[in-house]
Amino acid sequence: MATIHCFEGKPRFSCSQCSTTVALADELISKAFSGREGRGRLLHSACNIKLGAHEQRQLLTGVHTVADIFCVGCSTRLGWTYLRAFEVSQRYKEGKYLFERERIFKDNAWELDDQPSID
Ligand SMILES: [Zn+2]
Fold this sequence. Notes:
- There is one protein chain.
- With 119 residues, the protein is mostly beta strands.
- It has a single domain (12-106), classed as Metal Binding Protein, Guanine Nucleotide Exchange Factor, Chain A, CATH 2.170.150.
- Helix content is 0%, strand content 50%.
- It has strands at residues 12-15, 21-24, 28-35, 38-43, 49-59, 62-71, 77-85, 97-100, 104-106.
- A six-stranded antiparallel sheet has the order 3-4-8-7-6-5, with no helix packed on it. A three-stranded antiparallel sheet has the order 2-1-9, with no helix packed on it.
- Strand 5 and strand 6 (62-71) form a beta hairpin.
- The radius of gyration is 14 Å and the shape is globular.
- The protein starts with 11 loop residues before the first strand and ends in a 13-residue tail after the last strand.
- The relative contact order is 0.25.
- The structure holds zinc ion.
- Zinc ion binds at residues 15, 17-18, 20, 71, 73-74, 76.
């Protein structure tokens, strides 16, 4: 797949295993999504990832065609991308990326994004 250039010096999300940049923090849509292993973050775009096989998966919000995404640096599974949603109300997720919260970290020191939340 095409690699999107990630600019150095911008807040970004990185692989928690090998620190490869996998997305720009600006691309964050929501951090309250459900991943397979807990919370997930939905992003508009990603970089430095490999796609797994397409598969249909029953998610909380219905059937979706998804492909797992893997870090190019260490091949850790980071989450998945939504290729197709069958429910019209879920179509906004098509082409977006869901990262498992524990698999990535936000790579800047000044925004304390990961403090315990109050929700
Ligand atoms: Zn990695």
